[in-house]
Design a protein that fits this description.
CATH class of one domain in chain A: Mainly Alpha
Shape of chain A: globular
CATH architecture of the largest domain in chain B: Orthogonal Bundle
Structural class of chain A: mainly alpha
Distance between the termini of chain B: 42 Å
Distance between the termini of chain A: 42 Å
Strand order of the largest sheet of chain A: 1-2
Order of helices and strands of chain B: HHHHHHHHHHHHHH
Shape of chain B: flat
Largest sheet of chain B: none
Strand content of chain B: under 5%
CATH superfamily of the largest domain in chain B: MetI-like
Radius of gyration of chain A: 24 Å
CATH superfamily of one domain in chain A: MetI-like
CATH class of the largest domain in chain B: Mainly Alpha
Number of domains of chain B: 2
Oligomer: heterodimer
Radius of gyration of chain B: 26 Å
Number of strands of chain A: 2
Order of helices and strands of chain A: HEEHHHHHHHHHHHHH
Chain lengths: 296, 294
Amino acid sequence: MRARKRLIITFLFPATFLYLVFFLYPAIRAFYYSFFDWSGFSYEAKFIGLDNYRELIRDDLFIESLKNTLTIVFVGGVIVFGLAFALTILLNSGIKGRKLFRAIIFLPNVVAVIALTTMWSVAIYHPRFGILKNGLAYLGFESLSRTLWTSPENIFESMLAAIIWMNVGFYVVLLMAGIDKIPHELYEAARIDGANELQMFYRITVPLLWDVITVGIVLWSISALKIFEFPFAFSALEPSPNTYTIAVYLYVMGFGQRTPIYRLGYATAMGVALVLTVVVVVVVLRRVLRREVIQY
Amino acid sequence: MATTAHTRPWTLSRRTQGRLLRFVRQIPGYLVLLAWCGFTVFAIGWIAMSSFKTNRQLFQEPLKLPPQLRFENYSTAWNAVDMGRYFLNSVIVVSVSVFLILAISAPAAYVLSRVKFRGSNTITTLFTAGMGIPYPLLFIPLFALMLNLQLDNTLPGLIVVYVSLSLPFTVYILTGFFITLPSELEDAAVIDGCSDYQVYWRVMLPLASPGLLTAAIFNFIGLWNEYQLALVFANTDKTRTLSLGLYALRNALQYTGDWASLFAGIVIIMLPTVAIYIILSERMISGITMGSLK
């Protein structure tokens, strides 16, 4: 028994220690820092209570960042799941080359985000040699091809399209795995009873896939709420304020772009606001998406 | 069925007809999938193609193949910023981190999934909670901590961050693997006189090797591509990783307008993970779903 106890401790200690010290402790510490005015790591921090939070709700750029983030989560989410569902249905319609198509749709998930964001902002959206410009011109859409995709008024939508393209593959893979688990007999029985494809989709696939859909929506919401890399590196030199998300604005406030800013307490308050948003969105989604689980 | 086809030939033609009809109905589906996949392949292929062009060719004939393979852009990309060092930094940080992540997560996952003891559930929940914490929350408090430990902007510091933050997910994945292993083998090994450590090393770990490989691939790809933590914890001339190097390259080439060399930089960073993906795509795809559908 004592040997067993020693095994448990030696096996668990390294992981638990690192996790507590370098992950959980700083995460909790963040709540504490958010009550301070702290203008640099070597400076003394001054307790200011809730002032950082009061400033936050009056900060136009923060509100804009919050709005951008929520647009990515909800508008982006609807499109991501719509496309993922459509592609999944097509991939499951008995076509040839299913695995190859799926592998290509999933491909962006294994490429560095920094490479993808550069690919979109330069290779695809460039106003002169860009793929989109030349592709549209080649297809005869002359006026559309002259659109400046990364100009301040278009940049957010252009970025959103890229983010959607990048993420659809993961959810296609997720949905397909869920569908593979549904017993074939159900579809065969439905077909014998005269159900068409659409009826089978709404009456069998969606209800039996509900768990997977819920997991997918929650995963998407969490990852989209904390999105940082894609908007941060979408513009060269420094992120454009039109594409700020909470995480990007937090970084800018904490570390600055080209010149340091170091509003450490204020930036940390944004981190706390981000966590609270994650909690609220996840709780609400779980409520809304709760259905009776169907056993099969 | 076969006899029906023999005696009544028209059923065969009807079957062929059915197949044809089915194919015709599938055409829109094929077109959509081909459009989506074609776009992805074309965009990446276009970048690879353009990385061999001169900037003049890029601007004048953006859709044409390069007349010859020039590797000059690759040497420009490699030398415009200290790409050689960044590449080496990435190799060191990622390989050491992946090794440590597995060496630390596997025993923890083993104990949490196969040994019954008080507090086991609490610790599991604690680790799971880590998967919901967004990294940006840690930027400042963790940086302050690293600064105190004098590990800020160092490669060992970045490794500590990578390892610690990857633990929850890896423990989660590996716990899922260990749980599925049959307990008969464990019992047999104990009867044969194996100590608990030997059971782990000689029996359970080899059995869990597919899980370890999956976890290794995930962590390798995730960390090789990682950007935001490296940006906060190791963004100096000496400690940049390849992701940061690519952004630095982009900013450096922004002024000279040398886009073709930027594309060479993109190819350099994409090549290792895409190569692994081409070999292991099925395993990675099944691993992903296994991880998130538990």
